[in-house]
Write a structure and sequence with these properties.
By secondary structure, this protein is mainly α. It is about 70% helix and about 0% strand. The protein is globular.
Length: about 450
């Protein structure tokens, strides 16, 4: 069962259920920005971590996504995906609270940072695989881009405010104590999501399905998600493009960028936070303009523009030099342009994916997509660490910018450039409206 179709998107402003979810995600995103700055700073400043160790910290956050295809198959069989999202938030908040506790005992270690990265990453996988069926019950198809735009706008605002707030908290309270803010944000998100009244029909039992058929194994259900992506030209091209751009942007990921800004650009934590926060206004602008741009040039072309504009500006930071204002300004400019690009890419691609995935397959496809798209991120991060060790941070950033732009090639050979809107007629390409594997014995309730 999906949310009822509406003729427009204005109703979202008056939809209490969506606004409650939006508020929870906005609070959580703000906390995340603090931790994204604090974790690598703990490693760099308190533990004197090397570039390779910082890269491993980034990699471990994303490593649990390698098993997302299995978790997605499991989540598709569960009723009440909202409860799984609440559980994921509670786990993340609890794990983060171990850092200030260890700090008070003077026991913070690199091993603990790695454990926090893995556990919070695993909880994120659970949240993200339970999210797609929740989203389609919450938001009507006609409002997919608008809803994703608002959620992304909140994320971009968090990138504006979060680094500055995070830099201030780290400077005032130290990095381990600053992550308390993120832990509390997850608790707030869990509370708000848990209070959303949402019809979540029960799924079939775990042992038998419709007509008494035997429940296929977890691996088979996971494979069906993978198969659908492989046979669906829109999902396949979108995944290949996203995985490519993620590989290269994570080779220059936030950890190495913070390290580069600290050691090569000689910027203080406060200056880094201010530059990243100022530059992140580009993400807000991109999120606000994404619906208008997609209506003007089409959903597919918006994805293509974003695929190039997202990674290319990394090169601006790589060539930064000169006085303090020029170095900080280059970092801010790179963040601004990249923010515009990532919002054009994410909002339109996520909405397009949602519109072509059949009900009953959403968590499986999301899990399969995450396994490849997010699973490539730790590989990219580790590669970035090796490149930085061998060739230096500046060279690594230039390689990342160039390689990321090549992701466009996947889109050019696909139907995506010709898709203008999310109407069924526009998105109807072979294998986009039905499962191409064996018939699913457990169709989504309707």
């Amino acid at each position: 069962m999906t949310a009822p179709e509406t003729g427009g998107t204005a109703s979202l402003w008056h939809d209490r259920r969506f606004n409650r979810f939006w508020a929870g995600q906005s609070i959580s995103e703000l906390g995340d920005r603090i931790t994204e700055l604090a974790l690598p700073l703990i490693a760099v400043t308190a533990l004197n971590a090397s570039a390779n160790q910082v890269a491993w910290l980034t990699a471990l956050i994303w490593t649990p996504h390698l098993l997302a295809f299995l978790l997605g198959a499991w989540v598709d069989r569960r009723a009440h995906q909202r409860r799984l999202m609440v559980l994921a938030d509670l786990v993340r908040g609890s794990v983060l609270l171990t850092l200030p506790a260890a700090y008070l005992l003077d026991a913070v270690s690199l091993g603990q940072l790695y454990a926090v990265a893995v556990l919070t990453g695993a909880a994120a996988v659970l949240f993200n695989t339970a999210y797609p069926p929740f989203f389609v019950r919450l938001v009507p198809r006609s409002a997919y881009i608008e809803a994703n735009s608002r959620l992304s706008a909140s994320r971009s605002v968090s990138h504006v405010i979060g680094p500055a707030v995070g830099g201030g908290l780290v400077h005032t309270l130290t990095a381990p104590v600053a992550v308390i803010a993120d832990a509390l944000s997850y608790l707030a998100s869990a509370f708000l999501i848990g209070r959303i009244p949402l019809d979540e029909p029960p799924t079939a039992g775990a042992g038998t399905g419709a007509g008494g058929t035997t429940d296929p194994s977890l691996l088979r259900r996971a494979r069906e998600g993978m198969t659908l992506i492989g046979r669906n030209p829109v999902l396949r091209a979108g995944l290949c493009c996203a995985a490519t751009v993620n590989f290269f942007t994570f080779a220059a990921g936030s950890g190495l960028m913070v390290l580069f800004a600290t050691r090569d650009l000689d910027l203080s934590p406060g200056a880094i936070g201010l530059a990243l926060g100022t530059g992140a206004t580009g993400a807000f602008l991109g999120a606000v303009l994404a619906p208008k741009i997609s209506r003007h040039i089409g959903v597919g072309r918006s994805i293509m523009v974003g695929a190039v504009l997202f990674p290319a500006p990394i090169a601006i930071a790589a060539v930064a030099h000169g006085p303090l204002w020029a170095r900080a300004g280059a970092l801010a400019a790179a963040e601004f342009l990249s923010g515009v690009g990532v919002m054009l890419f994410d909002i339109n691609l996520n909405s397009l994916r949602t519109s072509v995935i059949p009900d009953g397959m959403r968590s499986r496809v999301a899990g399969a997509f995450s396994t490849l798209n997010y699973g490539i991120r730790p590989i990219g991060a580790i590669t970035g660490g090796l490149l930085a060790t061998a060739f230096g941070l500046r060279a690594t950033l230039l390689i990342s910018a160039t390689g990321g732009m090549l992701s466009l090639l996947w889109l050019l050979a696909s139907p995506i450039p010709r898709i203008h809107s999310l109407t069924p007629d526009d998105t109807a390409t072979p294998h986009t409206t039905q499962d191409t594997t064996d018939p699913d014995p457990y169709p989504a309730p309707s």
